[in-house]
Design a protein that fits this description.
CATH architecture: 3-Layer(aba) Sandwich
GO molecular function, one term: 6-phosphogluconolactonase activity
Number of helices: 7
Distance between the termini: 8 Å
Keywords: Carbohydrate metabolism, Hydrolase
Strand order of the largest sheet: 1-10-9-6-2-3-5
Number of domains: 1
Helix content: 25-40%
Largest sheet: 7 strands, parallel
Protein name: 6-phosphogluconolactonase
Bound molecules: 6-phosphogluconic acid
CATH topology: Rossmann fold
Strand content: 15-25%
Order of helices and strands: EHEHEEHEHEEHEHEHE
Enzyme class: hydrolase
EC number: 3.1.1.31
Radius of gyration: 17 Å
CATH class: Alpha Beta
Shape: globular
Length: 241
């Protein structure tokens, strides 16, 4: 389902509601969460109202920049830590993240893949890149079944500079495979802001575009939540399209 909300604020409320619902309903909740700007407010709203149920939560890494230390500004870990983990005061054992500075990145992939086999993802929240990427599954790659090291597109390298406080050299990322995200029990994909309106049009109106985000269309357990700004070329009113 594609649902269009009046504002980004309403999308943030929906994110918090979905997270809360999925935390309560599963005995062993395993969340896979995008970092980045889109879900920040939703995470904060979720953190404001969550109770002791958070103790049963496990977090599995979606992606990380290769070569960027997890504790440095702009790493995927650091963004999620600021927006969610620290607010929830999660224990270190609850968080299972790729280490982008490891000497053995393949082992990082295998470690996270083993974790997912043991603890299947119950809830994934994805953003969409300006080039239609999901996690760091970039356009041009086949649908990946496992965690992988990928070459970043020029768009991703440029856009990602907004996360860093100084120009940062990025070439590769480590990411869950698109198929692993699709295999989650429940997935929501969140897109907000006028700057995403062009890519939204491509995703929903250009079947030839071959974008990673398009691989998530057509599943009953995957919903897309957009605000009116992002949806401006595909709809004139808040609604389902
Ligand atoms: O940051 C991440 O963890 C994801 O890899 C990435 O896919 C992100 O969700 C999009 O690039 C959108 O980013 P914004 O929300 O910052 O636009």
């Amino acid at each position: 389902m594609i649902k269009i909300f009046e504002s980004a604020e309403e999308v943030a409320n929906k994110i918090a509601e979905e997270m809360n619902h999925n935390l309560m309903k599963d005995e062993n909740p395993v969340f896979c969460l995008a970092s980045g700007s889109t879900p920040q407010k939703g995470y904060q709203k979720f953190a404001e109202n969550v109770d002791n149920e958070k103790k049963k939560l496990k977090i599995v890494s979606l992606d990380e920049w290769v070569g960027i230390d997890r504790d440095s500004e702009g790493s995927c870990y650091q963004m999620l830590n600021n927006d969610l983990f620290s607010l929830l005061q999660l224990d270190e054992e609850q968080i299972h993240f790729f280490n982008g500075t490891s000497q053995d990145l393949q082992e990082q992939c295998r470690r996270i893949d083993r974790f997912i086999e043991e603890y299947p993802i119950t809830f994934s929240l994805m953003g969409v890149g300006m080039n239609g990427h999901i996690g760091l599954n970039e356009p041009g790659y086949p649908v990946l079944n496992h965690s992988s090291i990928v070459k970043l597109s020029e768009t991703t390298k440029t856009v990602a500079q907004k996360y860093f406080n100084q120009p940062t050299h990025l070439e590769e990322g480590i990411t869950l495979g698109l198929q692993q995200i699709i295999n989650s029990k429940r997935v929501i994909v969140v897109i907000t802001g006028e700057h995403k309106a062009d890519i939204v049009k491509e995703i929903f109106a250009n079947q030839e575009a071959n974008l990673p985000a398009q691989e998530l269309l057509g599943y009953d357990h995957i919903d897309f939540y957009l605000d009116m700004d992002a949806a401006k070329y595909i709809s004139r009113s808040p609604n389902n399209v």
